[in-house]
Design a protein that fits this description.
Shape of chain B: elongated
Strand order of the largest sheet of chain A: 1-2-3-4
Radius of gyration of chain B: 30 Å
Largest sheet of chain B: 5 strands, mixed, barrel
Strand order of the largest sheet of chain B: 1-3-4-6-5
Largest interface: A-B, 65 and 47 residues
Radius of gyration of chain A: 20 Å
Strand content of chain A: over 45%
Largest sheet of chain A: 4 strands, antiparallel
Structural class of chain A: mainly beta
Oligomer: heterodimer
Number of strands of chain A: 31
Number of strands of chain B: 6
Distance between the termini of chain B: 108 Å
Number of helices of chain B: 25
Strand content of chain B: 5-15%
Shape of chain A: globular
Helix content of chain B: 55-70%
Number of helices of chain A: 2
Amino acid sequence: MKLLPIAFASLLVASQASAAVLHSAGDDLLVAEGGSIASFDRAGVRRWRSTGVASPTTIASGRTLGAVCDALDGDITLFELANGRGSTVRVDGGPTEALFVGDDLYVLSSDAGELHRIRNGRRDANVAVGRQPAFLRQAEDRLIVYSRIDGMVRTFSVDLRPDKTLQLDAGGSDLETDGSYGYLALPQSAAVVTFSIETMRVEERLAIGAVPVDLAVEGKRTPLTAARLLVADPSSKKIWRSEGSQSFAGAVARGALRGALGLGLYTPRSAEFPTGVDRIATAGGKTIAFDSSKGELFLVGGKKSRRIADGVRWEELAITSEGIFGWDRLRSAPRRLDLP
Amino acid sequence: MAHDLREIGRARAVSRVGAKRLSAVKRLVALLLLVLATAAYGQAPRADDFEERQGRAQIARTDAFSRISGHLNLGDIFAARNDRAAAQRQWRIAEETAEKERRSARAASDLSRYARSTSYSGLAAAKLGKREEAHRLFEESLRYTADSPSAWNFYASAMSLLGDSGKAASGARNAIALTERRPDLASNTAAHLDLNVYRYALAAALTAAGNEKEAAPLLEGIIESLLSSRFDRIRAQIRDGEKFEILSTTSADADAYLTLLARSRIRLAEIHERRGEAAQAAVLYRQVLDQRSDEPHALAALARLGAGRSDGERFADAFEASPFSWKLITDYRRQLKETAVASQGDSRGARMRQLLERMSASRWESAAELAVELREENPENDSLLALSAEIATRLGRREEAERFQRAIRNGAISRDLAALIQSVPNDPLGRIRSIASRPRLESAEVSELHVLLVGDLSPELRELLDSAVFRSGVALGEAVADEETTTIAMARAGRTTLRFSESTRFRGRFSSGEEVTLAFRILGASEDESGPFLLVEPSGLSR
């Protein structure tokens, strides 16, 4: 196993320092540090730098705007992606999750149990979303919010009109969607629940591994394949890979097509790791897994995995279609990891 | 639906032989947080070394969580005594031990142990003031335990320590919501005890946020619940076991019950005090003392409220229980402004009172001597360092004062001291000139002159004193009169003695204690057993 000759080892030493937060936005990489936000090109050259929040925790980007959130102090800096010019908005209770629909920003206030919309630099609408909402996702024209305490999944229109609800278990550790289905990881009960976003009904409750904690949806649904679901299970030291949910009709159709093409049923392989990986992300055909207790990063490929860096932090990584980028603290610039 | 069933089947096999499913968070965690939450509200002082021994016994145990708890609790005990440096050493050890435990648990695929040790790491980080680190660690821990009330209570305690009462309240509300949903709540006494623990954490967070309107009924509800028949069995255990201690960390319901009841009463009493409802507060404090006679918060509060026994007795009890409590020190100094006291005894509490009494009487040099003695026994105590810094400032020893000031770790004490030192004039010469220019001094100004002049005098100051004549209202000391003159050796301006350089005969008949105006030059300032005095040369006396 070859470790990349990248200066990430130094980052481990500095692990007590404030973390940077990386985010990929189109051709740019956005990097937030305490008090600042900066944009870099993929070669690590800085385009601009601007004032940010004190303790950045999340970055989101839209069509022309970006936002960096501080879940500790409740501040959000909104900025123009082109030049960094921006303003600050306050959302009490910690903006823990954020996403843009166009240039409208939606943020979860976990402590207040609210979903806010920020339009034209101002909070213009909000809605109650249950106690301790943890995940905010978008599926076409719906927003999906899951509350970790009451276990409720709620959907809303983009103008924050409540749509449907689905009662699931409390204590979910991740919620992902492939656009048609939602997937909720339940580490305490070692299960992943699949539900239809259209009908808001549970499709399946699948026992997976020992402690399934993080999810990623790999690939896109095609007539031949469902999206694949990746499940990080640090206790089993594995990434479980299964096909995501599909409608019965879709499954029959795919089976028929595969049979016609002579492919047989697809049985994706799960990947094993020397350590307990608990984070997973996928983009551009690349999948990375991460052990946050050690700061070790792996490239996932089929059943094999390769350790590609250590001493890193998850929030200091950005996986893009053009590669995986990390924050090089020595150079104060993002740096592409050369993959084997 | 096509899932990789073969792999998942293997996963279950792995689960049996290596990987471990998450297990429920232990109740110990919940009970531990009870005291951690109280530590945040007011630096609960400790009456004796009992809790310290308990903490050290925990550290001697073999399991990591007992050791981590022991170090956290010892840190709390030292912090309560305002020994911040020792506290931080203990918290750092707890942090390191928890970090090792995290890594070991992950390597062993024991995610329950991993989540728990991550919570401990977060708590240690919060105690050490590492805000972002604490948040990051709790975020990680709650990924695995978000459906656990104990885990949220842990989070609430850490947020309280970090001063984020909004997040603390939110965490406590989560713990309450999850517990209230338990199907066995109605029949489970332990679950009810836990629920009251979480309600207490919420009340603490609300109080910190200034929301006493919601906090007070919560506390009343906790007390009512704890005194209900539901807890008869625990009360019987307490009676049979003659339990009296209020522990920092415990897995025993009886200990948790005692601690929770005492803390709830104290916190509710404090709310009554702030509302000016002294009688209701005193009742609650006395109930706490019925449970434990040396509970320092209650002792100090009753001394402050002036309820029951004499002031001296109440403060004596309170100082014996908690000699370095900054709040008690502040209260006693306020009391001394109204009444001069000369305490006896050589216990630590008695000597602390004597130190404050000397300071109150502006006997700065003798206060400095006693402070040295107390510091030798408690070299890193923040309260003593602050008092020493103040004394050094009063004596004009700025460098010494700054050295003490730099060593203080407790932010609140440091701020109080900075404000106090700022009030001591930087330019004593200018201030004395200003006082000298006044036609007639108030007794407070005479006292201030003593403060400004005690210690070494610069040549400029001596020159000023040689030429300046002060006039002040005084009460004459013993006056020996004949037909035309009166001989007098001293007078008093407030609590400052004006001792004449020699007995002086004044024209006219004056009587002892008579209030007159004395004109005098100052030769120096000092103090002895009778208190602070200015050595003066009188130049005139008038009615």
